[in-house]
Amino acid sequence: MKELRKIHWGIIGLGNIAHQFAKDLALVSDSKLLAVGSRTLEKSQNFAKQYEASKAYGSYDELMADTDIDIIYIATPHDSHADLTIRCLEHGKHVLCEKPIALNYKEAIRMVEASRANNKFFMEACWTRFNPSVRQTLLKINNREIGEVKYINADFAFNVGTPQGRIIDIKTGGGSLLDMGVYPLFLAYVILGSPDKVLASANFYESGADKQTSMILQYQNAQAVLHSSFVSSSNMVATISGTEGRICLNSIWHETQSYSVIKNNHKVDYQFPTKGKGFTYEIEECHQCIRDQKTESEIWSHQNSLDLIKIVDEVRNQTGLKFPKENRI
Ligand SMILES: NC(=O)c1ccc[n+]([C@@H]2O[C@H](COP(=O)([O-])OP(=O)(O)OC[C@H]3O[C@@H](n4cnc5c(N)ncnc54)[C@H](OP(=O)(O)O)[C@@H]3O)[C@@H](O)[C@H]2O)c1
């Protein structure tokens, strides 16, 4: 069989998640980490050496201008997602941008328009959508194996102690909602769709970033109770409860290796160990879409990202979370 040409990746923003992503990228056989870009050349050179990237740039602009790169993974703080994504697309690059897609819906729609205008693939890095246990769970729900879903309970909470850096920095879109709350919101959305009504309340750090946010998504025939927090920890199990049983995505649910189906007091466990940390699946989806010349994924589409950020906007309207730099709706 003819070997596929490798897809050439670039990474922008060489922090915590970029390291984890680079490890998983190496597990996908038709990928090559071609170049990395940091605001600091030395950091870029060290990262390139560690993950065997061919080129190291000391600025994001130089990386965007590299004509050998097919797709750029954006792993910077939230306030820069829209601007960097649009600039990469305008440089003729496909883009995988970390979650949340942007600070708000208004920024996100500009990103989607840039993808269409430049005819380049663009996806929010919603890796949980591609997790094997989550995909199996969605199939089972669609096949009505737990009947009609009536209730979802999901959170993302851990006690960070004294928070530092971007997670508390309101200027870069910090706070538990955008960092972690988007995951429980994703789960409710992907199962029940956009809610009829959102109720939310938050506590804040002095910086203005939210410490903890609780949310109820109200649907005509169902409810989701969701939570994100930097000040308490949880068991990180997500429960989807239907009229004929329930499914638990086991801890840590958003990157889970297993799930359980409980029906008639009988529990069946299903193990689905991920390849690497689990970023491999969204990477494979990017490759397939690029090879098929698609501008968006059918599994996690532009509309899905727009719907999700719209729910986040509504949560923020309810809690009063504001970011100083954002271009509000
Ligand atoms: N999918 C997941 O599981 C997951 C997990 C954690 C985070 N994330 C997401 O990934 C993104 C990055 O998170 P992270 O935890 O990797 O953050 P991080 O460790 O703080 O790294 C972010 C990187 O962005 C660059 N950067 C550009 N402007 C910056 C600024 N004003 N302040 C700080 N850094 C800046 C820096 O890279 P250079 O110095 O190299 O330019 C920095 O190292 C966020 O969108 C976050 O929500 C996703």
What does this structure look like?
It is a single chain. The protein contains nine helices and 14 strands. The strands form two sheets. Strands 8-9-10-7-11-12-13-14 form an eight-stranded mixed beta sheet, with helices on one face. A six-stranded parallel beta sheet has the order 3-2-1-4-5-6, sandwiched between helices. 48% of the residues are buried. It is 33% helix and 25% strand. With 329 residues, the chain is α/β, with parallel strands linked by helices. The chain has helices at residues 16-25, 41-51, 60-64, 81-90, 105-118, 132-142, 176-192, 280-291, 302-319, and strands at 7-12, 31-37, 55-57, 71-74, 94-97, 122-124, 149-157, 197-204, 210-218, 223-229, 238-242, 245-249, 258-263, 266-271. The mean pLDDT is 97. It folds into two domains: 7-126, NAD(P)-binding Rossmann-like Domain (Rossmann fold, 3-Layer(aba) Sandwich), CATH 3.40.50; 132-273, Dihydrodipicolinate Reductase, domain 2 (2-Layer Sandwich), CATH 3.30.360.10. The chain is globular and about 55 Å long. A hairpin with a 2-residue loop joins strand 11 (238-242) and strand 12. The protein binds NADP nicotinamide-adenine-dinucleotide phosphate (NAP). Residues 13-18, 38-40, 43, 75-78, 80, 98-99, 125, 127, 165-166, 172, 179 line the site of NADP nicotinamide-adenine-dinucleotide phosphate.
